[in-house]
Amino acid sequence: MISRLGLAIAAAAWLGGCGVADGGSAVATVAAARKQELDKARAMQQDVQRELEAAMAERRRQLERLERDGR
To answer: What separation in angstroms does the CA of 54 have from each of 8, 44, 60, 63?
Structure first.
């Protein structure tokens, strides 16, 4: 009877020999790159949101000044 370790070694050798292990590595690399892109996109979205909120606050202040000055 083959032990679990022996079976795991045999499976790893077989997967490595048929290229599945390389494919798994490529998938992991692509996934890491996609995650990095997603993180950058989220950071950019947050920056844009902060800029938009600042611009809206400035516009509110301008409107308040205009109303206060009677224009």
So the answer is: 58, 15, 10, 14
